[in-house]
């Protein structure tokens, strides 16, 4: 299971050349399951719609914290031009020229400049302007997907001193939660099976300082690395990790019904107003329980597709 990682993106790719996915048996030889999280997960909606004709991308997708709002407002690409000019790179050869610049020099300039931004642009190939239309027109990869987020995503990138809620309700957030909710709703309309999850584990050796199930907190549980940094894990933490790994493996082995055989039912198909259901993992001493996103139906009504 090769893990391709950058400071802000994590991609787990299960590749297959026969009936084995690097140790994961599969009923669909020749396919690949891709796990993407955070800014990498934000690329999944575009990939699903840009690769809908390719067999490789028609089956298994695991998107953690998808965010389709990730996009650049610099339509003139002035930040890239500014960076190129700083190193004497002319417009016609900007890219090739910048590739020859030592990366530390580039980092130093960016830190000094302070106001340059680089983000995804709408190119109608990897980032689209019409996600809903493409989905309804069938221009989306066919096959199941896992989509989820964490209980305290609302606390992402903020200094607001609000403690995680003790309620079983989860605050909807516009950064990750509502985009995940809307992407699932579009898939439901298109008749595409989606397995929804909420991660609620609160383990201090993963997220110290009372942050709770903060952004990306479930990754150590999925990869089984929760006990390598800040002390030993609890027995309950081990159990949650084992169950999560079993569920993800079940999806890779049998994406149409694997998770259901382990107590995780796919969210119902239907319209945009269909109540989404799935599982909540690690909530208050309970490894796995059924969960409904009914409270998000009103909270996410203003969600957009890009």
TrEMBL record:
The Carboxylesterase type B domain, residue ranges: 168-264
Name of the protein in question: Carboxylesterase type B domain-containing protein
InterPro entries in the record: AB_hydrolase_fold, CarbesteraseB
